[in-house]
Amino acid sequence: MDRFRFVIVVAALGCFALAFALSGIYPWWVTDAKGHEATVVEVTDVVSPDFKDVKERWPVAFDRAFAGATEAMTDKELAGVASDDPRRLASEAAWKRAYADAVKRGRDRYVAEACWHCHSQYVRPVIGDTARFGRIRSTDDDNNVLQRPVLWGTRRVGPDLTNEGGLRSNDWHAAHFANPVSVSPGSVMPKYPWYFEDGWEVRRSISRDVAKREGVDPATSYPYPGVHRTKAEAEAAMESIRTNIPPVLEGEKARLFVSPAKSPTADGLALIAYMQWLGTWTAPARRN
Ligand code: HEC
């Protein structure tokens, strides 16, 4: 029996040592001949539509969260801006800055929260794996700073996240981090309440006619994008919405109200941006 235990201990230590050594050797092995490892700026060169949607959805938190975020203009904001207006160029640069900032910060949260303890980032070259988790990432794609240390993970309590980008909506991720079972019944993933803060939002209730026609509760209401820090800020936003309502829709003014709401924090938005980035970058050597 003692001997058996000895073998188990030696085998376990051996596996640990092998994993430890591989995690060190692998980055060196995949670094290309010129010794170049893709930087954060390189891997976030193309700003994803999902990241732009983060700003549309949580504009107030977004502006506070990332470097240069206030200059990054959404497509709606750019609609009336001339094609040679310098604000367009400034906006493009600001988007890239904010995106690089967000993805890096989200990666750091992923490491700090030990998400890798339950999630792998390694689709194995076996049939079931590709059917469930998508494309196998090449070693070239691991040759970037966000894979230092390599985030293969330790076990698979949850799904592999190699190709998570674009699979779900930003809303889904926010709801999932707040309370996983709300969107994924039976999930054992923990809640992450510290990625949310209390605030206030402007909402509009639906008209009685619509409620009747659609067969929904007349108390139903929908939020305007943006959770504000204070009630006064939300009320100011409501006033500005009120003044823009055209006279024919006068009745709509009475349906606006301000109510408590939760918004992702800067780190929460960063984590969502990182989820949406996963699998969207391909090493230049593999593009054609
Ligand atoms: C205790 C293990 C555990 C931890 C820790 C954990 N998860 Fe999960 N995760 C799961 C399980 C199980 C699922 C599948 C059920 C579900 O969707 O909630 C999941 C699902 C997910 C999904 C949805 C994947 C998809 O598209 O189906 C994402 C994204 C995710 N986790 C991200 C994270 C992030 C980011 C962290 C760290 C902040 C984290 N998880 C921490 C267990 C975990």
Task: Please give a structural write-up.
This protein is mainly α and 288 residues long. It folds into two domains: 40-182 and 268-286, Cytochrome Bc1 Complex, Chain D, domain 2 (Orthogonal Bundle), CATH 1.10.760; 194-265. Helices cover 44% and strands 8% of the residues. The chain is built from eleven helices and three strands. It has helices at residues 2-30, 40-43, 49-57, 59-65, 75-78, 86-112, 127-133, 170-178, 208-214, 231-243, 266-277; strands at 196-205, 221-223, 256-264. Strands 2-1-3 form a three-stranded antiparallel sheet. Helix 4 crosses helix 11, helix 6 (86-112) crosses helix 11 and helix 8 crosses helix 11 (266-277). The termini are far apart. Heme C binds next to helix 11.
List keywords for this structure.
single chain, 288 residues, mainly alpha, Cytochrome Bc1 Complex, Chain D, domain 2, 3-stranded antiparallel beta sheet, 11 helices, 8% strand, globular, binds heme C
Strand-and-helix sequence, N→C?
Answer: HHHHHHHHEHEHEH
> Which residues form runs of ≥5 with pLDDT under 50?
none
Inertia-based shape? globular
Work out the count of structural domains.
2
Report the sheet with the most strands, covering strand number, pairing sense and barrel closure: 3 strands, antiparallel
Q: Total strand count, please?
A: 3
Q: Which bin fits the share of residues in helices?
A: 40-55%
Strand order of the largest sheet: 2-1-3
Classify the secondary structure makeup into a structural class.
mainly alpha
Please write the CATH class name of the largest domain: Mainly Alpha
